């Protein structure tokens, strides 16, 4: 294991980087135009109430815009749902692209640091750390295919960002996958994370989400023959 990458990740205290990285899941101090405010409102209100229970009036109130402004930008609530999923993809994609788990030299360090980063994002406010597109996919998969597809593109697209590091870790560590590959393991990460959010909601306990990420960390270490987990992203 690369000594520089291990020491680099170890010097980043869990959660510290979240204080210097503005989360894409909170309102910006200076709010943008009406369309942006409506997308931000959808991001927050839908995660709080669910898509079906969210009304156009709710969104207009949260965004501080008129109904006329809403229908100027979106022909329907479903159209707003598609745009909100795409907005989520854009803003969270930018957030994760510069996250510090990319800094480690060893690809397995980067994979484990990603898990640690996701764990550190879990706060006591369940709404804040849960996933808009996961909520949309669950609610609309059979009723609004356009929203479902936009949500799915976001989830699967994020999974794909992990594939290169997983594939490199497989090669570097001489692993011979049986019944899985980098793409399927990356999707399993998302299945675990989305499931962790559901458990946290069901139990009203963020600790359940952290527990799920701890198990994911152990699972990956077992796959790659590592013996100990410290959630730092460094191999023991």
Automatic annotation (TrEMBL):
Keywords: DNA-binding, Transcription, Transcription regulation
DNA-binding region listed in the record: 55-74
Top-rank taxon, per record: Bacteria
InterPro entries, A to Z: DNA-bd_HTH_TetR-type_CS (IPR023772), Homeodomain-like_sf (IPR009057), HTH_TetR (IPR001647), Tet_transcr_reg_TetR-rel_C_sf (IPR036271), TetR_C (IPR011075)
Pfam family, one: TetR_N
Domain (HTH tetR-type) ranges: 32-92
Identification of the protein by name: TetR/AcrR family transcriptional regulator
């Amino acid at each position: 294991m690369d000594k520089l990458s291990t020491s680099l990740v170890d010097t980043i205290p869990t959660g510290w980087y979240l204080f210097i990285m503005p989360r894409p899941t909170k309102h910006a101090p200076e709010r943008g135009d009406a369309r942006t405010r409506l997308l931000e409102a959808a991001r927050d209100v839908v995660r709080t109430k669910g898509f079906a229970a969210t009304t156009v009036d709710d969104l207009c109130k949260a965004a501080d815009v008129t109904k006329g402004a809403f229908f100027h930008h979106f022909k329907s609530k479903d159209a707003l749902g598609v745009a909100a999923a795409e907005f989520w993809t854009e803003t969270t994609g930018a957030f994760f692209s510069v996250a510090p788990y990319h800094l480690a030299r060893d690809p397995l360090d980067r994979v484990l640091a990603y898990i640690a980063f996701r764990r550190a994002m879990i706060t006591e406010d369940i709404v804040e750390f849960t996933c808009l597109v996961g909520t949309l996919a669950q609610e609309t998969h059979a009723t609004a295919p356009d929203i479902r597809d936009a949500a799915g593109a976001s989830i699967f697209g994020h999974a794909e960002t992990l594939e290169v590091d997983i594939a490199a870790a497989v090669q570097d560590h001489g692993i011979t996958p049986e019944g899985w590959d980098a793409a399927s393991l990356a999707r399993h990460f998302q299945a675990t994370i989305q499931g962790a959010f559901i458990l946290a909601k069901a139990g009203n306990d963020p600790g359940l989400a952290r527990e799920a990420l701890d198990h994911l960390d152990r699972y990956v270490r077992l796959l790659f023959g590592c013996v100990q987990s410290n959630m730092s992203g460094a191999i023991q």
